[in-house]
Each structure stands twice: as structure tokens, then as C-alpha cells.
Amino acid sequence: MRLIRNFLLAIYNIHAAIWFIAIMFLILPGIFLVSLFGKIRGGNMVFYFLRFWAHTWFPLVGIWFKRIRYEQEDKEPVIYVANHLSYLDAAIAVKVMRLPFRPLGKIEMVKIPAFGFIYRQSVVLVDRKDARARAQSVRTMKATLKEGVSMLVFPEGTTNYTGQPLRNFHDGAFRMAIEMETDIRPVLYVDSNHRLRAKGLLSLTPGINRVVWLPKVSVKGLTLQDLPALKKQVYDMMDAELRKYHNYPSLQPA
């Protein structure tokens, strides 16, 4: 039975990969054209091409979504902070967000043929190895927020395969929220590591993906002295909510 299951899973992943690439090449000419309109206007149009891709690909591979909202959708720009469980998370974000946004993305991804071009047009690139490049990324994110476009940041900084709900958060998203006086909206991708394992590019499986929007966290009146408390507040909110959906092993005392 296990051999049959692995064979069917391989066929399914080949099917998913073919459609992934086919839709990507279908939208590539359009993305190239709209990219000529600049980073903001053109980037917003790129979002809708990617949204078409996501709305087409996920049903074709048997992945469906349940959206759980604690509050109404955001009409003003916010900083979305999301947990990061697998490579599928970026595609999920495009699927479930209804308004254009920009994620913060690793610069290494631009090296992938064809996909790298699309990636460059749709994210704010960051080179974590270069301090000057990181500073430029922060300036770009702030300029994007000023233009009324929301940002998406994975505050864990990397994919979480610890077996716990979250890794420790970095300061960047919270510092930017305070400096830009932009509220934070925590978002949880509950099942993405069950659909695609953190270390398994060929481990995609069909099924449900639950996405939870937690209440917005106001930064009104906060200063950088409040950054640790703000970060802890958001972390605790996300950690507590994730524990409602899955059981996690207890941490062993040091």
C-alpha cells in the first residue's frame, strides 16, 4: 500500500508541477508588459496576474481554502505578519489577499529562470547578507506603504520546521510599523506545512488550507521603546491561536 501511495503522490506532484509551470508561462507576457508601468502601479497589476494564477492552480491540484476572520478586511494599508511553514506560503498569500500587497522576499529566488523575473516584479527584495542592501529594502518598504500598498513580512525570518508554532521574531516588521505609524495585522497559515512540507518540494498533497486573520494591532502612540512589548504581544496572539488548531510537543526544560 505504501508503494502505491508513493507512486500516486509522485504522479500528483508531476501533475501539480506541470500546471504550475504552464500557468506561469501563460501569465509571463502580461507581467512583462505591466512591469513597464513602474514598481507601484505595475506591481499592483502584477498582483492581479498572480491572483489569477493562484485561483487557477489551487483548484487544479485539489487544495481548497477556509478563511477565518476576527474582523472585517483592511481598507487601509497595514503590515501583515504571517507565520512561515513552507514554500507554499507565498502562493497562499496571493490566493487569499484581495488587495495588492508586497511581500518581503529573499533575493536568491531571482536566479530561478522565468519565475525569477515574476518574483522580482512582485516582491521587495532583501539580501540578508548585505547590511546596505537590507537598509535599502527597508526604505523601499516604507516608500511602498506611503503609496498605500500593504506589506507582508514573515517575522520569523525563515521557514519554521522546529515542531513548535513559531520561531523567535525579528524586530524589522515591528520597528517599521512604529516608525511608519502603520497597524499590524497578524495572519496565520494553519495547514501549509501539511500541504507542502518545509523541506519537501515534492511532497505536495491535496486538502484544506485554513487561513486566519487575527484582530489588528494598533501602534498609535507607540515609540521604539515599546518595540519589545509590541513584538511579544503579536507573538503571543499568533502562538495562542495556532495552538487551537494543532497539538504541539511540549518544550523540554533546558
UniProtKB/TrEMBL annotation:
Keywords on record: Acyltransferase, Lipid biosynthesis, Lipid metabolism, Membrane, Transferase, Transmembrane, Transmembrane helix
SMART domains hit by this protein: PlsC (SM00563)
CDD domains given in the database record: LPLAT_AGPAT-like
An example molecular function term from Gene Ontology annotations: acyltransferase activity
Keyword Protein biosynthesis carried by entry: no
All copies of domain Phospholipid/glycerol acyltransferase, residue ranges: 78-192
Transmembrane segments: 7-33, 45-65
Pathway the protein contributes to: Lipid metabolism
Any coiled-coil regions, as ranges: none
UniProt cross-references to Pfam families, sorted A to Z: Acyltransferase
PANTHER family: 1-ACYL-SN-GLYCEROL-3-PHOSPHATE ACYLTRANSFERASE, 1-ACYL-SN-GLYCEROL-3-PHOSPHATE ACYLTRANSFERASE-RELATED
Protein name as annotated: 1-acyl-sn-glycerol-3-phosphate acyltransferase
Lineage: Bacteria, Pseudomonadati, Bacteroidota, Chitinophagia, Chitinophagales
